[in-house]
Amino acid sequence: MILANALAACDSTTDTLGNSLTEDIDQLIISTDTFAVETRSIAAKSVLGRNTIGHIGRMKDPETGALVTSDFMTQFHTIDNYKFPEADEIVSKKDGAIIADSCEIRLFYETFSGDSLATMTLTAYEMDKPMLEDKPYYSDFDLGKEGFLREDGIQQNKNYTLYDKTVADSVRSQQNYIPYIRIPLNKAYTDKNGKRYHNYGTYIMHKYLENPAFFKDSYAFMSNVCPGFFFKSTAGIGSMANISMSHLVIYYRIKENDSIYNAVTTFAGTDEVLQTTHVSNNQNALQQMIDDDSRTYIKSPAGIFTEISLPIEEIMENHAGEKVNAAKISFKRLNNTLISAHKFPPASTILMLPVDSMYTFFEKKSIADNKTSFVATLSATDNTYTFNNISTLIAHLYNKKKNGENCSENWNKVVLVPVVATYTTIQSNGLSVKILNKVTHDMGISSTSLVGGKNNPNGEVNLSVIYTKYAER
Known about the structure:
The chain is mainly beta. Helices cover 14% and strands 40% of the residues. The strands form four sheets. Strands 1, 16, 17, 18, 19, 20, 21, 22, 23, 24 and 25 form an eleven-stranded antiparallel β-sheet that branches. Strands 2, 3, 6, 7, 8, 9, 12, 13, 14 and 15 form a ten-stranded antiparallel β-sheet that branches. The protein has a two-stranded antiparallel sheet with strand order 4-5. The longest helix is centred in the C-terminal third of the chain and has 12 residues, at 391-402.
């Protein structure tokens, strides 16, 4: 690390650096080389749909003129051994039976893409059975065709705009206000056994009265009470909401000390349960961008990745006896000159990993380890994504090939994927330290073009390598 940092601050003159770092008896010889790398765009087609952010909406891609649609499914979490108030405490009743006064789902979004005034419609579908974590669900997985949606269950339409004019400015200006799409579930509800309830919230409450063990944990809740909901964008073009939280909310009244109070029970869609995104993309339109070999693209959701062919044998074999100490590569972003009020923003974070690990990395819930996988963010200063040292990746791929470890034809290829990187901040010796704890596919709207491609007019993409070896004595 000291060597790499020292060289990063130096010009091309490195002939005396070995003297400053080692004893004369162990003099270190340092050399550098630069290699051109080949890049191209490849179709993502379908990516692992599990993520922490849901996406709902439909937008027209200004680069292709095609529509991009996102829908998502979420389950709801219950705290362990959740308890409703005692039956005799609940005063919300009809014909002597306990009811929920009202029930709704709230989809909270802190960010969005597109026009906040675009009129959109979604449909909330009740799940027939829960999606379990015994298999990976990809972004092209069709819940309807696979029998996950209850045909005679809830199918609630909701018209909305992301800027809700019914919300007072005094509420909107509050510091903790988060806008949301509200989906009422107040119609009479019939369960799969044909039993009829005042509304969906009443059904939830009666399932608790039937057996409180249905609420002992999230698995019991989704298996016996609420398998989840699928939210499908069914009309409108112009906006995409990034759903950070989903709440199933039940309202009722309770009596305590001869007074009546309003009570609320909330079940949240969280990391404790499964959330998946379904994406509809126009593959023919994306292919036209892929065929543009004057540049490469990174596009989400489930759109385009950039593939890089690393000249690993040239790097390693032309420098026998030397060790690769550092290998730096940057990818220059080409500014989007398209004139559009709603052009897609560039990806903020990308992941580099071997092509052969492109699917298993996410299925195994792996985290970038700075050995064979690396995260980079777009620099506002120089408009680039920079990977400062991928020397361990180069050595790993070279050794696999050399040792004949089931290498495919893609053994020397890596790929750039748009991702969402989640960090935990901890305090250490009075300093705040960010630790990467999750990497998922970015299922939001983004489009990035990079210098590269077979007929690239903007200069080569280069990999700069620093070698070291000890002088012979």
